[in-house]
Design goal:
little secondary structure, Herpes Virus-1, 3 strands, elongated
Length: 84
């Protein structure tokens, strides 16, 4: 089950469970669409994978399966992955 992380790892923007701008990679690294487009070039800086829009968990299921409250932020900053 997805954690639904609460923020962008790059700019720390809040990304609540109902956010339509939350993007995730296959490892569930979470970024906002603005950072994915303008900073990261659609490449995850953690794993090198691409992104997909994070699905929205129905509100009725959030009580039983709550979103994560643990914020993750890249301590070294957020920079695009360089091509090899």
């Amino acid at each position: 089950m997805l954690e639904l992380r609460p923020n962008c790892e790059c700019c720390d923007r809040n990304l609540p469970p109902e956010s339509t701008v939350a993007m995730i990679c296959t490892f569930e690294c979470t970024f906002c669409a603005d950072c994915v487009d303008t900073v990261l070039g659609d490449v995850c800086p953690n794993c090198g994978g691409d992104f997909a829009r994070r699905p929205i968990r129905p509100a009725a299921l959030l009580a039983k399966y709550p979103a994560s409250t643990k914020r993750v932020l890249k301590a070294e900053g957020c920079a695009p992955v360089r091509a090899a």
